[in-house]
Design goal:
By secondary structure, the chain is an all-alpha fold. The chain is built from one helix and no strands. Helix content is 40%, strand content 0%. The longest helix has 36 residues. 0% of the residues are buried.
Length: 91
């Protein structure tokens, strides 16, 4: 068995142990949640950190929405490139 084969085998064993540990922890979590529910405890949603937009996603400085920038903002549809209301906007 070469060193590469040993590394591949070790990685596969690690992944199997990691997956087993995750499954065990999730099962324990479900058991604990069931016990808490039986005791009348209802978990209150905890405030999570606002994650904001996905990495690399544009944020518009005009409307603060994700997916575009101020130049391509849907709120600009009625204006031309110089900021003036276009003639076709009313149509």
């Amino acid at each position: 068995m070469t060193i590469i084969d040993e590394a591949i085998k070790a990685k596969a064993e690690y992944e199997q142990k990691k997956d087993a540990a995750i499954k065990e922890l999730l099962n324990r979590q479900r058991e604990i949640e069931a016990q808490l529910k039986n005791l009348g405890y209802h978990a209150v949603a905890t405030k999570t950190k606002d994650q904001g937009p996905a990495k690399g996603q544009r944020i518009c400085s005009k409307c603060k929405k994700a997916g575009h920038n101020s130049r391509t903002c849907p709120e600009n549809k009625a204006k031309d490139h110089k900021g003036k209301v276009s003639r076709n906007a009313a149509a």
